[in-house]
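Researcher: I'd like a candidate sequence for this fold, 297 residues long. If you have to choose between options at a position, lean toward the conservative one.
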């Protein structure tokens, strides 16, 4: 893009000097062995990052699927996104649904748009969940590539409770699953049947990534979703389906295509009461299924 040729120097800013001898957090891993940042509260200065991303006039797309009854999650998700998601940046919400008529009216701030994309629904919930990969892939190529720079792909049954900003953006990123961020490899619920394309041996795996929030550049997300969709089809032909559906294929992808940032479990938390010593901000949290009669897996 042209901006690369322009003067991209920052303005004078006042902030505490980074201290080479005093890491901001000593209780958690801040960088992967392949030198990707792991995004924890306290590890970044959002003012510096906002200045950098504003200079690039970055545009961010948020994709979410609301098939059948999951349309009810759009109001809490989008209303909280208006408060906490990429505030001050250009944002396009892309809601994939089979119930466009039931889409609530959401008041959007300046520079933010909402598009409802009508898509077919699938009978089995597993297919509803897995086919997201195919649809994100197809729309990346035909639409998103012309409209945004980055994509953030999220589950519907979630809401924002604190800031989620440009600190998460990179070529391709995954998120530590809230239930497994401290777990050992053998505890990861990866696909363990060799017959599945999602198979991960018990002596491999870096983290267990959640399927509920991942993203990257449109190109990065296109590669990821294309891989996951292909592996899913291969399994379908062999009459096998990975244990955690799209999440299993996503974990397989990240094992051999390392993410360039890893979001901490702050970005995939549950609304447990209080904050812990490790989780200082509950940024993006799931809405419990027993909070609603919507979902009966
Ligand atoms: C899903 C399960 C049971 C009944 C209905 C549905 C359902 C899901 C639906 O009726 N309509 C719908 O739009 N969905 C979409 O699929 C929606 O975007 C939802 O967030 C997504 C995944 O389903 P969800 O959120 O109920 O499953 P979780 O929270 O257990 O998700 C994890 O595991 C999934 C695979 O089993 C995915 O990998 C997901 O990304 C993970 O967070
Ligand atoms: Mn979910």
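Model: Candidate sequence:
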């Amino acid at each position: 893009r042209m901006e690369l040729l322009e003067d991209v120097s920052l303005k004078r800013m006042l902030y505490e000097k980074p201290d080479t001898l005093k890491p901001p957090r000593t209780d958690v891993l801040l960088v992967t062995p392949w030198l990707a940042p792991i995004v924890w509260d306290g590890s970044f200065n959002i003012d510096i990052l906002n200045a950098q991303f504003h200079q690039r006039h970055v545009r961010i797309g948020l994709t979410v699927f609301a098939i059948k009854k999951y349309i009810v999650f759009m109001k809490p998700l989008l209303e909280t996104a208006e408060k906490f998601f990429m505030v001050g940046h250009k944002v396009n919400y892309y809601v994939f649904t089979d119930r466009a008529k039931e889409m609530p009216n959401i008041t959007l701030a300046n520079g933010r748009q909402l598009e409802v994309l009508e898509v077919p629904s699938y009978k089995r919930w597993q297919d509803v969940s897995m086919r997201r990969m195919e649809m994100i892939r197809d729309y990346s190529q035909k639409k998103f590539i012309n409209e945004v720079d980055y994509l953030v792909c999220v589950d519907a049954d979630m809401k924002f409770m604190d800031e989620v900003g440009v600190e998460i953006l990179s070529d391709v990123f995954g998120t530590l699953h809230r239930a497994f961020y401290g777990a050992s490899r053998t505890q990861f619920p990866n696909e363990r049947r060799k017959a599945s394309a999602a198979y991960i041996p018990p002596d491999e795996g870096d983290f267990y990534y959640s399927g509920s929030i991942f993203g990257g550049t449109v190109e990065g997300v296109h590669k990821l979703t294309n891989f996951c969709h292909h592996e899913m089809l291969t399994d379908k032909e062999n009459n096998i389906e990975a244990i955690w559906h799209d999440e299993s294929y996503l974990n397989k992808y990240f094992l051999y295509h390392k993410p360039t940032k890893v979001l901490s479990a702050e970005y995939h938390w549950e609304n447990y009461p209080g904050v812990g010593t490790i989780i200082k901000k509950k940024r993006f949290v799931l809405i419990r299924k027993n909070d609603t009669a919507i979902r009966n897996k």
